[in-house]
Amino acid sequence: MGGKNRKATPEQQPHDGDNVQMSLIDHLDELRNRIIYSLVFVLIGSCAGWFLAPAALKLLSYGQKLQALAPLDPFMWQLRMSMIIGVVIAAPMIILQVWLFIRPALKKNERRFAFPTIFSAIILFFLGGALGAATVPLTLKVLSKFMAGYVHSDYSLDRFISFVSSYVLGLGIVFEMPVVLVLLAKIGVISYKQLAAGRKFAFIAIVAVAAIITPTGDPITLAAFSLPLYLLFEITLLVIRFMKTKPRDEEPAA
After folding, report:
1. C-alpha to C-alpha distance for 95 and 42, rounded to whole angstroms
2. Burial state string for 41-60 with b = 16 or more CB within 10 A and e = fewer than 16
3. What is the pTM of this model?
4. pLDDT of 150-170, one tens digit each?
5. Rounded CA gap, 105 and 183, in Å?
6. E-assigned strands of the chain?
């Protein structure tokens, strides 16, 4: 008799994860786990990156000889470059960990977009990185024209790798913009009308971000980065326009 009215424990209550309330400690614990997993994947990728670093440096420098200013520079920068390559290799798993971290906050129908969201984020990250790697020669060519005839471009190993890595990884991260916008639109945080009305501000923001990422400041390089980013923004608008969205507070609870 008493068994019928006995309240089930949280472990015994059936749920699909939609309405589970997590405490701050639970969130911090989950965040810690996701960070640890991401670091493990980066470490594994860095092991492969150690052997790929010389070929990657040769590819990105286009055969140009770089200066080592200290005896330990070649070893230290091969180590650091292997870590950068490790981040690139581990990027799909890092994106997956980010998704798994925010997943508990999403409703059941919002989780259906897990695969397209993760897949799109991975593809766009590598597209952005590829664009950055492909435009490194153009950027170096433009930079070498400043003070031409008075300054000889003879890059040091540390500054060259720092420049190229921030350049390539920065574009990879910026190319995640469509995924973020589509996800926010899908869960009802933003709408097509809001984004369409803010086209001018979006264009200014994209040019500003491109100017920060591209250190040359010349119109050609700035346009080479701004136009693909703005095109991605317009494509994202089209996707959001024809995508079925519904405010989260209007969705029935599971």
Report:
1. 12
2. bbeebbeebeebbeebbeeb
3. 0.69
4. 777 778 888 888 888 888 888
5. 13
6. none
